[in-house]
Amino acid sequence: MDFQTSKNLGGAGSLLLFSGPLLALFHGFGGILLLIGAMLVLIALKGFADHYKEAGIFNNALYGFITAVVGAVISTVLFIVTAVRVMEELGLDLKDVAGWPRQIGPEMVMELLRGMLGGILISLLVIFVFAIITAMLYRKSLNLLSSKSGIGLFSTAGLLLLIGTILTIVIVGFVIIWVAFLLMAVAFFSMKPLTPTESAA
Question: In b/e form, how buried is each residue of 85-103, taking b as 16+ CB within 10 angstroms?
Fold first, then answer.
């Protein structure tokens, strides 16, 4: 894959990551955009890893992507297991979901919520820990790309991505991550192939 293709894929993917959360507020399609954007950025980083002969640019991002997927799966499984256990304890028939409205009253709803609270908190904690690991790995990838390309915005975007992930416990963290995606897009579109003199240096 040539330099220009990698540049365009990285920029387009970053813009999808930037616009995905906005669309997700109004339509579920936003989540699909985020996934497509992440894949395009990953493909672009593979291209740049080959171009600059620095495997870490791609490997760290790949490990980060895998970490994110594993974290999401583990968190989802924990939530489902907790939900099933609580429903069984409350005597709800999992094979007769249509009959639940007749069984669930206000008191049972509160018991259901109390029982689910622990599972929800554990699931969120798992997502948080895996998200931080993911952000750290992506920051390593972007730092390497910044060093090789001479585009400092990649390093800045990686730092903001990590800070934003840590601060997702408050709303401002999501805003910082959103800004990081925008900076990534600008950084990708700002890239230019190094001249032979610059490469030698």
Answer: ebbeeeebeeeeeeeeeee
| Tens-digit pLDDT profile for residues 101-147 | 555 656 666 666 666 777 788 888 999 999 999 999 999 999 999 99
Of 174, 146, 170, residue with least CA distance to 160? 174
Residue 110 CB contacts under 8 Å (≥ 6 apart), including other chains: none
pTM for this one? 0.83
Q: Phi and psi (nearest 5°) for 194?
A: -70, 140
* Both structure tokens of 191: 């890239």
Question: Are 149 and 48 spatial neighbours (Cβ–Cβ below 8 Å)?
Answer: yes
